[in-house]
Amino acid sequence: MNISKNKVVTIDYSLHNETGELLDSSEGGEPLVYLHGNENIIPGLEKFLEGKTTGDSISCTVPAAEAYGERDESLVFKVSKKDFGDNVEVAPGMQFEAHGEEGVQIVTVVGVNGDEVTIDANHPLAGENLHFDVKVVDVRDATEEEIEHCHVHMDGEDGCCDDDCDCADCEDGCSDGCCD
Fold this sequence. Notes:
The chain is mainly beta. The chain has two helices and eleven strands, in the order βββαββββββαββ. The protein has helices spanning 43-49, 144-149, and strands at 7-16, 22-25, 32-35, 57-62, 76-80, 95-100, 103-113, 116-120, 130-141, 174-175, 178-179. The strands form three sheets. Strands 1, 2, 3, 4 and 9 form a five-stranded antiparallel β-sheet that branches. Strands 5-8-7-6 form a four-stranded antiparallel β-sheet, with no helix packed on it. Strands 10-11 form a two-stranded antiparallel sheet. A hairpin with a 2-residue loop joins strand 7 and strand 8 (116-120).
């Protein structure tokens, strides 16, 4: 069975940056399982996997624009230390989740100067070309429920929220009518 829209795909992978540093890997852990064609992985990798089948291996470079996007310097800005709450130690390198118009995003503290904190709302891998080595472990048809919810349901998982799930009720909200 070939990888195409609404197929559940299981892959083992390793991810390196331009300098060859290992950024992430499924080795020693669980493989990645996702619903193809539903924005569950970066678009560039999804493109490279299209049409592959169980047992296939690929090595590919996904350009930044098809991964986490190019860096946007307008997403680096200053906020008041008070915005972090009382008795919170703020230091460069700290990362936290922020909820914005485009959903949850990781924000990194890049500098602290007195009561002024500089944060970077770019994804930590924005601007990076990513190098993947991937082996396709399995490809199967998605269930109707997985297609409806736009994500894979693992063994014992009955939906995004509960038995009476309406995607509009999901804690993290929805995009394109599907649960996140």
